């Protein structure tokens, strides 16, 4: 392992299950790869529109494949991910704008680095992709915030800020930053190597990512592997 810390940025939206997989794996590799992991909550809908892309699930054969793929990956990566009862409604009718504004408000108020952002993001992901709960209503986001360790007063203030223009603008700005990296979907992972950004899309590029940053890929559960070495 090299001594200098490498910066890795993750652009994500909680509506994306593949982003959750990438998020959990990168969190596990924080110390294994000696990286500084930076979270950038953004709006996937804005990236899809800005890049001219369309959701893969809109193609029936792709949608059927993705369900099977996510089931296998959830087991392989040890992430408690399962399909919502109505995936189309969750992803395309309800969406994630309110949730991403809430997480953006957390980013803007975080005092302990990204740990709180990590915890809140994970709790919101769990609601949509593990326990099949709403992520649109303020009461649902409040519950996620409380489970992540926020106080009732902090949650109330974040819910208020999530509706403010500065937070809305910040989310738009972060989404545009992803588009500036030529994003066409999430997760978008940026590895800064020798002053140059290496851009990766998806949750299946970790082996190549490790090669590019001069580290070793030990699988999606590095702690489990190293405990046997």
Structural features:
229 residues; alpha+beta; four-stranded mixed beta sheet; 11 helices; 4 strands; EC 2.5.1.18; Thioredoxin-like_sf; Glutathione S-transferase kappa; transferase
Task: Please provide a written account of the structure.
With 229 residues, the protein is an alpha+beta fold. 54% of the residues lie in helices and 11% in strands. Strands 2-1-3-4 form a 4-stranded mixed β-sheet, sandwiched between helices. α5 (97-109) crosses α8 (152-162) and α6 (115-129) crosses α7. The radius of gyration is 17 Å and the shape is globular. Residues 7-212 form the DSBA-like thioredoxin domain. It is an enzyme of class 2 (transferase). Its EC number is 2.5.1.18.
Q: Percent helix among the residues?
A: 40-55%
**Net shape:** globular
Please tell me how large the radius of gyration is.
17 Å
- Average pLDDT, rounded to a whole number, is 92
- Termini distance? 16 Å
Low-confidence stretches: none
DSSP strand count: 4
Strand content: 5-15%
Give the spatial strand order of the biggest sheet: 2-1-3-4
Q: Helix and strand string, N-terminal first?
A: EHEHHHHHHHHEEHH
Compute the number of helices: 11
Characterize the biggest β-sheet: 4 strands, mixed
Overall SS class: alpha+beta
Gist?
The protein has 229 residues and is α+β, with helices and mostly antiparallel strands.
Topology of helices and strands:
Layout: E1 6-12, H1 17-28, E2 35-41, H2 44-51, H3 60-77, H4 87-94, H5 97-109, H6 115-129, H7 138-147, H8 152-162, H9 165-180, E3 188-193, E4 196-201, H10 206-213, H11 222-226
Parallel strand pairs: 1-2
Antiparallel strand pairs: 1-3, 3-4
Helix pairs in contact: 1-3, 2-9, 5-6, 5-8, 5-9, 6-7, 7-8
């Amino acid at each position: 392992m090299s001594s200098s810390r490498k910066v890795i940025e993750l652009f994500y939206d909680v509506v994306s299950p593949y982003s959750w997989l990438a998020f959990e794996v990168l969190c596990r590799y924080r110390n294994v790869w000696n990286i500084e992991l930076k979270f950038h909550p953004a709006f996937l809908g804005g990236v899809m529109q800005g890049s001219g892309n369309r959701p893969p699930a809109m193609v029936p054969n792709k949608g059927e494949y993705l369900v099977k793929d996510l089931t296998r990956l959830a087991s392989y990566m040890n992430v408690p991910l399962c399909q919502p009862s109505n995936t189309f409604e969750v992803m395309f009718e309800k969406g994630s704008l309110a949730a991403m504004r809430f997480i953006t408000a957390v980013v803007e108020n975080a005092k302990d680095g990204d740990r709180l952002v990590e915890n809140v993001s994970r709790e919101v992901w769990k609601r949509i992709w593990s326990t099949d709960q709403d992520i649109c209503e303020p009461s649902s986001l409040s519950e996620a915030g409380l489970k992540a360790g926020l106080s009732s007063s902090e949650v109330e203030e974040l819910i208020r800020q999530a509706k403010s223009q500065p937070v809305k603008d910040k989310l738009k700005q972060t989404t545009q930053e992803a588009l500036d990296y030529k994003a066409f979907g999430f997760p978008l992972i940026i590895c800064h190597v020798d002053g140059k950004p290496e851009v990766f899309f998806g949750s299946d590029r970790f082996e190549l990512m490790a090669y590019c940053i001069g580290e070793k890929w030990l699988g999606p559960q590095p702690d489990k592997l190293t405990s046997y070495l």
